Amino acid sequence: MVAKLVLRPPHSLPLSTLPSKFLIFPKIPSLPKRFLIVSLFSATAAAQTHPQISNPNNSSYFYGPSLRKGTHPLTLRSHPPFTKTEDDFDDDDLFNEDSFSRVFDIAALRVPAKDCFALESRLRGHLLNWPRIRNIGRVPGDEVEAELAELLANQGSDLEDENALASLNRRMYGKSEGDGEPLSPVLYREKLAKTFDSRGYVKFRNLARMSRPNQRKKRGDEEGEGGEGKKRWGKSEFSVLEVVDDEEGEGEGEDLKGLLGDEFEGRRKWRGSTRLLLLDERYAKKGVEELPEAIKVVMKENTRTSMRPAFELVRCKLTVFYEYWQMNEILEALLPEGMIVPSAFETVGHIAHLNLRDEHLPYKKLIAKVILDKNKPKIQTVVNKIDAIHNDYRTMQLEVLAGNRSLVTTVVENGLRFHVDLATVYWNSRLATERQRLVNSFTRKDVVCDVFTGVGPIAVSAARIVKRVYANDLNPNAIEYLERNSVINKLERKIKVFNMDGRRFIGAMFASDKAKSITQVVMNLPNDAAEYLDAFQGILVDRPTEEEFTLPMIHVYGFSKAQDPEFDFHQRIRIALSEAAVDVEMRRVRLVAPGKWMLCASFILPKSVAYAKPTLDM
Ligand SMILES: C[S@@+](CC[C@H](N)C(=O)[O-])C[C@H]1O[C@@H](n2cnc3c(N)ncnc32)[C@H](O)[C@@H]1O
């Protein structure tokens, strides 16, 4: 499987337009050998020197979240400098993930929860439209269950309703707003506590906590750890939304804070569940009057229909963390200016397999860590191919760059499971479609010879359909895995396994009593398979000519860099068979490198070849 990591158009603000002090890596040649200094650009600094970066009024302002916008949170833990020798690098310590945290000022409409979906669709074009950020933020702590709402207001769950609120206030302390002097906080609390029955006590966690001070303390400690005791609203794994100015309720909300908990700090009298509708980033710093007409209309409507407007404009801070950014955004920030960001890798089970260019090699561990972080848990290991495939077994020389070091993995292909050890056997997930196409051309009457079977993706898959498979490979490790794969897919009874050279295998099969049954021969060793076709010359020469024999269909794979790849490959086949008249069906499988095609030629073994005088010494 190939995971294509599509790059968004790089930066709307090209890296090259930034002064060098914002560049992520200083130029390597100027560094002492074996030293890399990883320093992320400063968005704050960038914003100061390049006001267009964060100024929404500037015409070159670009929309959407970006590491080049926002500010760094001030609460970051201090980290040691990023200077390391290459040898010091380990997966967890390559760069400071906190440097990727960005705080964005956002405006939001706080609205009653029951209205939020209607308002969301009404204000759609004016809401924040950032990937993976929900434009509705929850406000934990002001949720109220229907049962409790009934208990409090005695009027169903419509707590937001003015009358319900007044009625609640009167029930609690005999007065409501406008009825005269408000009660002192102490009286207010007493009255409220008396009014609640045991059910209410249970529902209001803070009342319960008052009688369990230890638990309250513990919770307070936990909260203090990450966010300086700040309320974190709308928390997700990769972002946190906080309301920053809630001045309106100051003082007035003290009573509720004391009674209902810190979550109610600074809020005005509790009016039930609310939601935050995050507004488009352009309105971050705007006052109500500067908002677009659609939002103003909504707010005006609310003011008209209610003595105490339930919608309010609040300022929020949206903090996004390392986890939020896409792989290419992180790599763009980490790699030097102008360097192409590695955009694709192949996956084999839990392994991401890179083919890094030379220019990426000094950053191979950084790249691997980001790939690992951004593709967990599916990817557990990141490897780089360090050399072209030269050996007979077609195995790759791989360097583990990040994650666990095991190269033994399980691949699921076309509904079958294959165990593979990338260190000792060949595997290429990119051929899955071609293998499937080939196998789909077989029928249940077929008997297949897979001459270069590897760990058996064609053989095992074919065994599901055909009568019988004879599978061979020169690599004993591949054969071990083939046997294992036959068993785990419960197809071992249909597959007979051989471990010998391909030429010998062809000779042996057609010399045996199985020869007459073989209908398909697969030769998937694209570098050399065509040259192995000479093994078919005269394979039936010793058989009586009157014997009825159905000649097999041969599927042979090959590469060609020629101008006319089909012609070129056909020529190689003719030469190997010493036969000019071969009727071949040719297909291009895929472009493996610029100008280099992988082809599949399928043809029925010509009688003239099968009965020819053998030229080989077997
Ligand atoms: C390109 S791989 C193809 C494997 C399999 N068909 C697949 O699709 O994964 C070629 C296989 O041929 C095997 N091989 C190489 N030379 C061979 C030879 N002379 N005889 C038999 N097998 C050979 C290699 O060990 C390797 O497993």
UniProtKB/TrEMBL annotation:
CDD domains in the record: AdoMet_MTases
Keywords assigned by UniProt, alphabetized: Cytoplasm, Methyltransferase, Mitochondrion, Nucleus, S-adenosyl-L-methionine, Transferase, tRNA processing
Keyword Transcription regulation on entry: no
One of the record's GO molecular function terms: tRNA (guanine(37)-N1)-methyltransferase activity
EC category: transferase
Listed Pfam families: TRM5-TYW2_MTfase, TYW2_N_2
Residue intervals of the SAM-dependent methyltransferase TRM5/TYW2-type domain: 345-607
GO CC terms in record: mitochondrial matrix; nucleus
Location (main, coarse): mitochondrion
Catalytic reactions of this protein: guanosine(37) in tRNA + S-adenosyl-L-methionine = N(1)-methylguanosine(37) in tRNA + S-adenosyl-L-homocysteine + H(+)
Region (Disordered): 211-232
PROSITE patterns in the cross-refs: SAM_MT_TRM5_TYW2
GO biological process per UniProt: mitochondrial tRNA methylation; tRNA N1-guanine methylation
EC number(s) on file: 2.1.1.228
Compartment(s) where it occurs, according to its Swiss-Prot or TrEMBL record: Mitochondrion matrix; Nucleus; Cytoplasm
Binding-site positions, S-adenosyl-L-methionine: R435, D473, L474, D501, G502, N524
Xref: HAMAP family: TRM5
Similarity-based family: Belongs to the TRM5 / TYW2 family. Belongs to the class I-like SAM-binding methyltransferase superfamily. TRM5/TYW2 family.
PANTHER family found in the cross-reference section: TRNA (GUANINE(37)-N1)-METHYLTRANSFERASE 2, TRNA METHYLTRANSFERASE
Assembly with partners or alone: Monomer.
Function: Specifically methylates the N1 position of guanosine-37 in various cytoplasmic and mitochondrial tRNAs. Methylation is not dependent on the nature of the nucleoside 5' of the target nucleoside. This is the first step in the biosynthesis of wybutosine (yW), a modified base adjacent to the anticodon of tRNAs and required for accurate decoding.
UniProt-recorded name of the protein: tRNA (guanine(37)-N1)-methyltransferase
Lineage: Eukaryota, Viridiplantae, Streptophyta, Embryophyta, Tracheophyta
